[in-house]
Amino acid sequence: MRHFCSAYFDKSTRESTQTISEHIYEGINYLDEFNIRRRFDEYLVRLAGYLSLAISREEARRALYASYIFHDLGKLHHKYQEEKTGFGGHEVISTYWVYRHGRELGLEKLLPSVVYAVYLHHHDLRKKKPEVVRNVNLCRECIDFLISIYREKTGVDLLKYETKFKEDVYGKLIARLNQIIISDREYSYIRLSYPLLQAIHGADNFSASRRGGKQSPLSREIEKVSNSIKALRENFKLIH
Q1: How many whole angstroms separate alpha carbon 231 and alpha carbon 235?
Q2: In a domain, 107, yes or no
Q3: How many domains does the chain have?
Q4: Element (H, E) at 226
Q5: What are the distances in angstroms from CA 112 to CA 65, 139, 173, 229?
């Protein structure tokens, strides 16, 4: 049986309640149903055009998929998987990895927006420096799985990538974010991160609602909407 890192641990038992595979698959199904199927990529293209940035639907789709597929990549750090106590700082590792490999992932013009979206998916730019920022060691097998999903959805294959970072990941990432902020005088990249964040939030909370345990208000609402839409579709089929 293939190894998969955990995406969530029960705080009381320290048992895994959802693997990274389960978390990503559930979220991708949501993303396909509620974003891609509804031409969310076309909306991104139009919004980018309004901000004087010309992108294709293909670029928009890559940004959507990359933002979700790699948003929890930092949880693959061996320290998290071995200690089973939480994932504090995983967004820093995830964002840094995407920043390092974004060009090869075909993110091009939207890389700064994806970087923002992954970093902020349920975090805050003003937060204190995370505890885990050095000697990062990521699970190669699980990254291979994430890359395979990205390849399936976008046709882009990442053949070479890094799994270990000894440098100050947080310091280098903040330096990069500061460069983006200084150059982004019209706030175009941060504006384009908003719809990506919307997609991540929806997929992330829907996936979280599938693992059992206590749900957040947002995950409960998203599950209600999802179930309502499915029921309407079934009733519409019966009528016709």
Answers
A1: 6
A2: yes
A3: 1
A4: helix 217-239
A5: 15, 25, 12, 33
pTM (whole model) above 0.85: yes
Tell me the pLDDT tens digit for each residue of 49-102.
Answer: 999 999 999 999 999 999 999 999 999 999 999 988 788 889 999 999 999 999
Distance CA 97, CA 164 (A): 10
Residue whose pair of structure tokens reads 């789709």 in the numeric block? 61
Distance between CA atoms of 9 and 19, rounded to whole angstroms? Answer: 9
Residue 17 in any domain: the answer is yes
* Amino acid in the structure at residue 126: R
In sequence order, which residues have a C-beta less than 8 Å from that of residue 161 and are 6 or more positions away?
A: 97, 101, 104, 143, 147
- CA dihedral defined by 11, 127, 206, 113, rounded to 10 degrees? -150
Would you call 201 exposed, middle or buried from its count of C-beta atoms within 10 A (0-12, 13-18, 19+)?
middle
Give the residue numbers spanning the domain of 124.
6-214
What is the rounded distance in angstroms from the CA atom of residue 106 to the CA atom of residue 98? Answer: 11
Q: Tokens for 73, please give them.
A: 């990549």
